[in-house]
Amino acid sequence: xxxxxxxxxxxxxxxxxxxxxxxxxxxxxxxxxxxxxxxxxxxxxxxxxxxxxxxxxxxxxxxxxxxxxxxxxxxx
Length: 76
Description:
By secondary structure, this protein is mainly alpha-helical. Helices cover 72% and strands 0% of the residues. The protein is built from three helices and no strands.
């Protein structure tokens, strides 16, 4: 099965499937991050307009900036 892989299959994989998977993973993580709505909307716009760079920037800096925020106080 793997013996039939030709170089153009790898090119398709590298330039289409992997960036698409990164984009989906980043969007799912953003939606589950617990960030405020404006921050979620901003990250979704960045990741959608710049799929590869936006996803990489989310993985490098976005998750950390959201994780460091203290939880919002409960409303009474």
